[in-house]
Design a protein that fits this description.
The protein is mostly helical. Helices cover 75% and strands 0% of the residues. It is a multi-pass membrane protein.
Length: 302
């Protein structure tokens, strides 16, 4: 485990920088000054880590990854996409418990639909992406990822009933389907444009941005939820020792709605990253359906 062969300091620096960033975001609602100081520290740590990675012979994020516009923006788009996944998975079980009276176990069972959808559709997307270009597939996936939170928010606005839960589950499936399509197409794109000497470390880079997106999704959804809830409900939050008043249920449903609407904007950021990353001009990709041929010169496709 020597440093020249294993980028130990790079890994620790990445962990410290991202950990400080997530912790700083979660402290904004409690102490703005402290939260901003921790966030500033996280950017310093991330900058130092990037400088280290730029000069390390066996870096976790090689120089050729950071200099490749297509790869780095596809990773940033994946980070935004995964933050939506976590925010919905984190907030929806509480909504099922507060608004519909589900137990914690029942709410968790309902949310099990997300991994099942991912596994099932993962097999479907792999077949579809053999025929269509990854560029439009990413945009289509992000469209449904953007639409899903709005559908869930509009559904929960109606009267709480068993049918409402099933509609919410269908909306969650739409959201999950879109995000899984984006992930599959994004992986195809990033691996197809990755140079041979960095393909072996692409998995670690993807996983790092994935977990960062998960962490940021939880942190941001907590900040959004707590800030809105504090303004709409100035009383102590009910717990197991105090009955939940109907007024708090109505408040939490509205908080859940607003949080979904705000977090849905992460899909727009992912779309921007997708447009900046572009499409793969390789011959195989060029021959697939819906490839944006006008974006590329004919010399790529002789």
């Amino acid at each position: 485990l020597s440093e020249p062969s294993f980028d130990v300091l790079g890994g620790l620096g990445t962990l410290a920088g991202l950990g400080a960033l997530v912790y700083g975001v979660t402290r904004l609602e409690v102490n703005v000054t402290l939260g901003l100081m921790i966030i500033a520290l996280s950017f310093v740590l991330i900058a130092l880590t990037l400088w280290w990675e730029w000069n390390h012979p066996c870096a976790i994020f090689p120089k050729r990854i950071m200099k490749n516009k297509g790869i780095i923006f596809s990773l940033l788009g994946a980070m935004c996409n995964f933050s939506i996944t976590t925010s919905i998975s984190f907030m929806m079980p509480y909504c099922l418990q507060y608004a519909f009276g589900y137990s914690a176990g029942a709410a968790g069972t309902v949310m099990f639909i997300t991994p099942l959808t991912n596994v099932g559709l993962g097999l479907v997307w792999s077949k579809i992406l053999m025929k269509i270009s990854a560029f439009p597939a990413r945009l289509i996936g992000l469209f449904f990822a953007y639409l899903g939170p709005y559908l869930i928010g509009m559904t929960i606005h109606t009267a709480a009933s068993p049918s409402t839960v099933w509609i919410m589950i269908l909306c969650q499936i739409v959201n999950t389907a879109g995000m899984s399509l984006f992930v599959a197409a994004n992986n195809v794109f990033s691996m197809s444009i990755a140079p041979i000497d960095v393909k072996g470390v692409m998995g670690g880079a993807v996983q790092t941005f994935r977990e960062t997106g998960f962490s940021l999704g939880v942190a941001l959804s907590c900040v959004i939820r707590d800030s809105i809830e504090r303004k709409m409900w100035p009383y102590p939050v009910p717990d197991a020792n105090r009955p939940i008043p109907p007024e708090f249920v109505d408040t939490y449903v509205k908080v859940f709605q607003y949080s979904l609407y705000v977090m849905a904007q992460m899909a727009l950021l992912a779309m921007i990253c997708t447009f900046i990353a572009g499409a793969d001009p390789a011959e195989l990709e060029f021959k697939r359906k819906w490839f944006p041929k006008r974006l590329y010169h004919k010399r790529y496709h002789k």
